[in-house]
Amino acid sequence: MATAEAARQTRPKASDPLSLATLGWYALPGAGVSFLYTLILVMFLKFATDVLLVSSAAVGMLMLGSKVWDAVSDPVAGFLSDRTRTRRGRRKSWLLAGSLPLALFSIMLWAPPTSLGETALLVWIGVAIFGFYTAYTAIDVPHLALGAELSHAPRDRNRIFGARQLLRSAGLVLAFGIGVALLDTPSARSNAPPLAVLAGLATALSIWAAVRRLPPERGDYSGRGGTNPLRSLRDVWRNRLARIVLIVYFIEMLGMGGIGVLSPFVIEYVLEMPGHTWWLLLGYVVPGILSVPLWVRLGSHFEKRRLWMFAMGASGVGFGMLLFVTPGAWPLMLASTVIAGTAGACSNTIGVSLKADIIDVDEHATGERKEGAYFAAWAFVSKLAAGLMMGFVGVALQWIGFEPGGVQTPEVRRGILFLIGGLPLLGFGLGMALFTRFDLSEQEHARIRREIDARR
């Protein structure tokens, strides 16, 4: 009886809907993790140069190297978490292991000792930022994998990743609001340590609470990851559906990679409205949050692949509207961000849910459960494309004749608008063309799940 009861607990039925409590506990860590990650991405370079008074070039190289490591470490974390066997499960153990280092390295980054010289300070920053991104990967990839394992039901997967996106977006808004407000001031040096301590410890506590409150992991998945990291990556690439999504993601991120960097340039040099960057960026983020329940509801009535295709088109239209921005045309830019932000939420909810279905196709073919390897591969491609594009934007600005702080020529303005609007439009258009080859219907996925379940 005890064995049967344990099996029942670790093998939830795919038809059993997940409770709101389970969705909430799963999504909870996303807010804090997103807050810490966004704060470093947006504010640390300025904090390091203006407050800590270290070389911008040196910090920039450290941040570039850490982002490369962030991408490269994804497949490593994915494979190792797939192979982990512990009492708590192969995902929760990674979340626990990464929680305290994430908090400590974040505190270390924002609160270096005042007695350090420049060389020692750079070493301190290097250790902290590489440590932070290592801990972030150790949490983010297994957390995504855990979401795919909570349920096999397509609609529940939409709810799972919708809840995750809601909380991560909330963390993003808090970072843009509270975080930036406290760090972009003359008192940033004194504000940063308590902010880092509070946010870091709150994030760690949210992870511990989630691990404790979530249902037990599926025991039948333990030890069923890939046996070789290279073979796991090969399986991902050989999976035709996964390969299509990898290529589409890469193309889309090449188009979108410069948006965060270029938005301030558009607002200051094209709109000619300096000082309005953050509220226009919130015009992208807030609709993304508010539209998550809409996409989850639509996912109950329409096929996920159709919804994602529609969202790609809407994203292309939204970003393409930026090609027509002129001085003072903030309503047009706001409309663009609202459309693009609403459409982008689909990719982070329905799109991620669809990836979980692709992993079921792999299990059907190989008998293995490699959620970690799959989500790591998608994360790697996304970060690689975004990093390449961010580097390209800097070169492109110089090539088109951009003059820092000066009045830009019409040609430069058109070049900036093409980089932020034209390239995403082309990227989403090409992505849509490739995605027409994605043919995993909900009926086919249901058949695959029935055959997998019949093997047990």
**What is the CATH H-level superfamily of the largest domain?**
MFS general substrate transporter like domains
Highest-level CATH class of the largest domain? Mainly Alpha
Question: Into how many domains do the coordinates divide?
Answer: 2
Helix percent band: over 70%
Distance between the termini: 19 Å
Radius of gyration: 22 Å
Report the portion of residues in β strands.
under 5%
Low-confidence stretches: 1-12
Number of continuous helical runs: 18
- Assembly type of the shown chains? single chain
- The number of distinct β-strands equals 0
Largest sheet: none
Quote the CATH topology of the largest domain. Growth Hormone, Chain: A
CATH architectural label of the largest domain: Up-down Bundle
Shape: globular
Describe the protein's architecture and organization.
- Mean pLDDT is 85; it is low at 1-12.
- By secondary structure, the protein is mainly alpha-helical.
- It has helices spanning 2-10, 20-27, 29-50, 56-83, 92-110, 118-150, 154-183, 188-213, 229-238, 240-256, 259-270, 277-290, 292-298, 304-320, 330-366, 371-399, 410-435, 442-454.
- Helix content is 78%, strand content 0%.
- It contains 18 helices and no strands.
- Helix 15 (330-366) packs parallel to helix 18.
- The chain folds into two domains: 20-223, Growth Hormone, Chain: A, CATH 1.20.1250; 232-456, Up-down Bundle (Growth Hormone, Chain: A).
- The two termini are 19 Å apart.
- The longest helix is centred in the C-terminal third of the chain and has 37 residues, at 330-366.
